[in-house]
Amino acid sequence: MESPGLEDRPVLVFDYGSQYVKLIARRVRERHAFARVVRHDLSAKRARELNPLAIILSGGPSSVYEEGAPQCDPGLFDLGVPVLGVCYGMQLACRALGGTVQSSPAREYGRADCHILDSKEPLFHEVPESTTVWMSHGDQVKEAGSEFIPLATTATCSVAAVKHRTRPIYGLQFHPEVAHTPYGTLILGNFLDRICGSPKSWTMSAFLERSIQDVRRQVGENDRVVCGLSGGVDSAVAAGVIAKAIGPRLVCVFVDNGLLRAGERDSVAEAFGKHSDAELRVVDASGRFLKELNGVSDPQEKRIRIGHTFVDVFRDEAKSIPNAKYLAQGTLYPDVIESGGDKDGPAATIKHHHNVGGLPAELGFELIEPLRDLFKDEVRRLGLELGLPDSIVWRHPFPGPGLAVRCLGPVSHDRLEILRQADAIFLDEIRRAGLERQIAQAFAVLLPVSSVGVMGDGRTYENAVALRAVETDDFMTADWSRIPHELLARASTRIINSVKGINRVVYDVTSKPPGTIEWE
Ligand code: XMP
To answer: I need a surface site. Which of 127, 304, 347, 491 has the fewest CB within 10 A?
Structure first.
């Protein structure tokens, strides 16, 4: 990944293993500076080549004085580039420049009252002298050393923030990136604007302009780009950027696998047709997918079969597009970081599951990934910048294997239809209650059990459906949504009254962990 634009000098966020590394990067970007996560041992030489606006050293679970603990290249402190150490990062900076770090008398975790010692300090501009901060550490700086001036204290941490006497090097023992530090974003903003002189050039409109130029440069005049639309926001925004750059030389392929939600195929076709002059091909392959899934109950087997069928269908379609040389994908920055896809980034971590939309290299396309520098919230803002409708920009994520992994047990046309109707009613109630944005994902799951009920004067023995709604920022952890009981009551009544084959509705109150968001 090269820097997106000369004016966007990156803020390099060194990764020492904190769960908040990506959050730091997102917060920096919210202040309109381009943040990039890099490995903890990136050399000072390479850092200089990247021409950074600033360096942020993240927190991490290790102890700086332990054998084998991740260290930074001390040359980073000689680059003349402003440095901000957060938690472990502050301890690294202090230790490298003459301070001492030791285990805290008591592990400090949670809110703390922080007292700012110098109200004129630009880092704390407009921050109250007494403010709440979020701490999460086992070690702390004992002596800042002669090179640093302490800037803040808490009851248990005498050095809660520091500044170097002569160089632009700062440290915070607390976490400015988390919401529990109410002035944290302001402190990060002060660092960027007042200490680093950030030009605040990271905006989605500037990004869009540059991406359009990049796509035009990359794609030859007679070449065409193929983009698989999934119905989700990422592929739609990726297609939107490319369509703006090369118009009808983009061909979008939407595969109807028969596992879509109610109305999905039409809404994608309509939204896409209105908003771009690219070609859209809708391939109805539902029969082919359902045949492959016939009699399959195992969730992984379902995923594998759907994945293979998707590749086959896509390959057949792509063959019929003349001069198709490139494949567009809606890969996002967190995927790039996690898969180790950036040579200066951290090493790969285990991916949880693969996206069925990911197409194998043997299809022979060159990849275009216009979103690989963006976080999800930035993708939505870019979508708005492109003029895509809210229905696409704010769409909840939908798994590649679709309703197949929400139809527990064997998948059949009839069972899918029951599920589709129940799901549509639940989503409709959520939309009507105005809860669509608060809830990250909501859906119905058709259970492989029948239960006894009574309707009218008769006994019934029919399917049960579970409703699930979760709230989450990153989908790695999630909490079940406390949606109003009245909403559940309305959804339940409507489902039982109008969906033939369902006589019982339950609501899932499992968070993740220990549950997963999907049931399969
Ligand atoms: P879980 O169930 O693992 O889901 O908590 C986390 C997020 O990933 C989505 N998901 C998938 N997406 N292919 C996808 O493209 C899949 O096989 C798949 N499985 C789960 C899920 O909907 C949630 O947003």
So the answer is: 347
Best CA proximity match to 94, nearest among 135, 157, 140: 140
8 and 50 in contact (C-beta within 8 Å)? Answer: no
Q: Is 353 in the pocket of ligand 1 (CB under 6 A)?
A: yes
Pick the CATH number of 204-393 from 3.40.50.620, 1.10.760.10, 3.40.50.12780, 3.30.450.40: 3.40.50.620
Tell me, in angstroms, the distance from the centre of ligand 1 to residue 231's CA. Answer: 15
Closest-CA residue, ligand 1 atom 14, reads: 399
Residues annotated catalytic, as ranges: 87, 175, 177
- Which tokens sit at 177? 């990136």
Amino acid 359 reads L
Domain boundaries, the chain: 11-195, 204-393, 412-507
458: which residues sit within 8 A by CB, 6+ positions away? Answer: none
Report pLDDT digits (tens) over 483-517.
Answer: 999 999 999 999 999 999 999 999 999 999 899 99
Q: Could you tell which of 403, 423, 518 is best to mutate to test the pocket of ligand 1, judged by most ligand atoms within 8 Å of the CB?
A: 518
Q: Say how far apart CA 180 and CA 174 lie, in whole Å.
A: 10
pLDDT in tens, 115-173: 999 989 999 999 999 999 999 988 999 999 999 999 999 998 999 999 999 999 999 99
Q: Nearest C-alpha to atom 7 of ligand 1 is from which residue? A: 475
In this prediction the pTM is 0.88
Neighbours of 213 (CB within 10 A): 12
Would the CB of 18 count as within 6 Å of ligand 1? no
In this prediction, what percent of the chain has a pLDDT beyond 70?
A: 97
Residues 193-203: tens digit of each pLDDT? 999 999 999 99
The secondary structure element, H or E, covering residue 468 is: strand 458-471
Architecture of domain 412-507: 2-Layer Sandwich (3.30)
Q: What is the dihedral of CA 200, 206, 208, 209, to 10 degrees?
A: -160
Q: How far is the CA of 36 from the centre of ligand 1 (A)?
A: 25
Query: Quick count: other Cβ atoms within 10 Å of Cβ 287?
Result: 10
Residue 474 to residue 26: CA distance in whole angstroms: 12
Q: Which CATH superfamily is domain 11-195 in?
A: Class I glutamine amidotransferase (GATase) domain (3.40.50.880)
Q: Evaluate whether 204-393 and 412-507 have a shared fold.
A: no
Ligand 1 atom 24: residue of nearest CA: 397
Ligand 1 near 118 CB (within 6 A): no
b/e map 425-434, b = 16+ CB within 10 Å: bbbebbeebe
Q: What is the pLDDT of residues 251-261, one digit of tens each?
A: 999 999 999 99
